Amino acid sequence: MFYSFCKVGQYMTYFKFELIHRSKKSRARVGRIHTPHGIIDTPNFVAVGTNGTVKALNNTMLHDIGLQLMFCNTYHMMLQPGTDIVRQAGGLHSFIQRKLPIITDSGGFQVFSLAYGSVADELKSRGTKKQGGCVLKITEEGVLFRSYRDGSKVLLTPESSIKAQKDLGADIIIPFDELPPYHIARDALKKSLDRTHRWEKRSLEAHLKNPQEQAMYAVVHGGIDPDLRKESCAILTELPFDGFAVGGSMGKTKDEMHTLLSLTLPLLPEDKPNHLLGIGDLPSIERSVPLGIDTFDSSYPTRAARHGILLTKQGPLNITKSEYATNFNSIEKGCLCPACHHFSLAYIHHLFKARELTCMSLATVHNLYFMVQLMEKYRKQIQEDLI
Amino acid sequence: MFYSFCKVGQYMTYFKFELIHRSKKSRARVGRIHTPHGIIDTPNFVAVGTNGTVKALNNTMLHDIGLQLMFCNTYHMMLQPGTDIVRQAGGLHSFIQRKLPIITDSGGFQVFSLAYGSVADELKSRGTKKQGGCVLKITEEGVLFRSYRDGSKVLLTPESSIKAQKDLGADIIIPFDELPPYHIARDALKKSLDRTHRWEKRSLEAHLKNPQEQAMYAVVHGGIDPDLRKESCAILTELPFDGFAVGGSMGKTKDEMHTLLSLTLPLLPEDKPNHLLGIGDLPSIERSVPLGIDTFDSSYPTRAARHGILLTKQGPLNITKSEYATNFNSIEKGCLCPACHHFSLAYIHHLFKARELTCMSLATVHNLYFMVQLMEKYRKQIQEDLI
Q1: Which of A248, B171, B238, B376 has an alpha carbon 20 to 30 Å from A302's alpha carbon atom?
Q2: How many domains does chain B have?
Q3: A214 domain-assigned
Q4: Interface contact A357-B56, CB threshold 8 A
Q5: Are A342 and B58 inside 8 Å of each other by CB?
Q6: Residue B105 catalytic?
Q7: What residues make up the domain containing A36?
Q8: Residue-level pLDDT, tens digit, chain B, 387 residues
Q9: Does residue B260 sit within a domain?
Q10: Is residue A369 part of a domain?
């Protein structure tokens, strides 16, 4: 069992990573992340609850299906309701009534992706400035942007991001970083990376002044440049972070991502947990678990659910197809989720056709339970050295 | 205890109305309606689940809060998924997985309200033909209308409505009736009433050929004309219906409705349950319980919930108001609903502001639980002769 450092020589008791098994077949590993709000078995899937709820569910439902880690977005919580209010409520766990672990990001990703658009937007030339939010100025200090909610100017810096994340009080927090656009010259990428490292260091320093029983994961950047990725690992692993997230652009294809992760993961310390930011579609998880990724967050299963895509062991099915109108079986035989336990494909198909909100929660709870089960299966297979 | 007749001399064992207490102070009464899917304590509120679900909830949640009767709309179920499919699923209870009693209407109300608009639409001159559905022809046979879903022509007759309701298999069904517009000359109203009586009789005959453990409530019509209301009661109470619903236009104001109900209720048999169709706002319930109404259906509490109106003992509150942003109490102190048990006003306010679907289900489950509790309070007060 490895204990993470808070400061040199000072053992943390509230956060540790326990390595249970390392596969003989790959770099895949099974572990346990101990947090103030309980254990996260790894590898695991992290549900995205941007505004403090997974869309269409409530947090007691998440608890009941055993979803161990939930991702909330600091950017959104800053703008609504404001992190002050969450602090007054006693922190995010109390405000949203979640008893299990939470991770928050720095807000940087959202600010920059609103400015540049997502990588996918960029590749598809869908333009920028979604939702009307925009970056006004990037300086060494931080980023000045306009709130998409009320048009007010907001300055986000490493210190203000950490202040916000202290208000939120998640178990795992993320330093402030820059998300450079996918199409960027190497010089500009290098400059961005250097600044990100300075911002992450400032974030860590701000955090360590008041650890508040939170753990901080660094975010490895460097885009699709292998040398810069290596440099990022080298610099960040020198700092007393509690874990390491992999962020930034990872290329256009799953092959590119696989290559980058294969290069990056071995450069991260084995005794600390790692996280793959914003990627959690099924093929990516399948290819990344053998590389040693511990946790994945993604809105894929929940967003897919709201569009009628239900995950099953036989692959995703589109519940809106007419073939399900008279299928009175459950989504997946043997599935113990509340949707499968009570309702048929035909009924859920009907709810989608009738545009009833109820279908969203049934589909979402099924897909998340599927992810919980899938990750449990991966852990079992790793322990049996099958992965 | 009164037993309803199925045919003369043939006692029904699957449906009966049990009168528990008649108030000494008013015509209010406490009773129990026994159905194949359990008891409905009266007076009670009936939740509207148009498409086989209360919007934003699932049927296990309804069960858990003790909602004893749910109203599904035959018109909607005919067009989507089609009552054939529901029959194949084993009926509505099986299809939507509801273990407690269900009532369905005839489809007539929707067909005509799509043609004429609702009374409220009419009074506000909002015009007709909402959603693009329209009545093509009304004959003695029935109504030919165009489906708002696919533009196909559908003929709804007393016999086809009952056929559909046999497919659905609710505990309580409603004969096919005409909903005349509010602004109608007396002659036309009288003609409509006569036809409605013929249609209701045909519906009853169709039903009694195959009772299928269903009970049928007549629908008293006559609009705002006291003499026609009396005539309707006289004619319908001669027929072996199992209960009596009051339908049609009941005037522009609550006073008009009160006058009409005061006149109508004493003309209905005491040994059978009655129902007030489509009216269940709080002031109307408060004024109608003393008149002896047993059940009320209304989409008010659920629709209000989706607009952020939460019902409390101190009156409705608008959760979207900024005063709730930092109110960390539950919606109502002591309320045992899932929303109050877990979440604060501030969090639900936040979910509304962030436009999260989750707020809809929390608000809806609270409002319905409020109605369950309210009706229980009324029953208690009647038993103590306070109403």
Answers
A1: A248
A2: 1
A3: yes
A4: yes
A5: yes
A6: yes
A7: 16-118+132-309
A8: 444 444 444 566 899 999 999 999 999 999 999 999 999 999 999 999 999 999 999 999 999 999 999 999 999 999 999 999 999 999 999 999 999 999 999 998 888 887 666 555 555 544 444 445 588 888 999 999 888 778 888 899 999 999 999 999 999 999 999 988 878 899 999 999 999 999 999 999 999 999 999 999 999 999 999 999 999 999 999 999 999 999 998 988 999 999 999 999 999 999 999 999 999 999 999 999 999 999 999 999 999 999 999 999 999 999 999 999 999 999 999 999 999 999 999 999 999 999 999 999 999 999 999 999 999 999 999 999 999
A9: yes
A10: no
The first and second tokens of residue A322, run together, are 């007419």
Helices (H), chain B: 59-64, 74-79, 83-88, 92-96, 108-116, 119-123, 158-168, 186-208, 226-236, 254-264, 282-288, 300-306, 338-342, 345-353, 358-383
Token pair 């936040």 in the structure block, residue: B350
- Number of helices (H) and strands (E) in chain B: give both, helices first: 15, 17
User: Given CB atoms, is A236 within the 8 Å cutoff of chain B?
Assistant: no
Q: Do A241 and A272 touch, CB atoms closer than 8 A?
A: yes
End-to-end CA gap in chain B: 22
CATH number at residue A283: 3.20.20.105
Provide the ipTM.
0.93
**Is the separation of the CB atoms in B236 and B216 below 8 Å?**
no
What separation, in Å, do the N-terminal and C-terminal C-alpha atoms of chain A show?
22
> What residues of B are designated binding site for Zn(2+)?
335, 337, 340, 366
Q: Is residue B2 part of a domain?
A: no
- Please check whether residue B375 touches A, CB under 8 A: no
Asked if A331 is an interface residue toward chain B (Cβ–Cβ < 8 A), one would say: no
Q: According to the annotation, is A108 in a ligand binding site?
A: yes
User: CB neighbours (10 Å) of residue A332?
Assistant: 21
Residue A344: which of B57, B89, B349 has the nearest Cβ?
A: B89
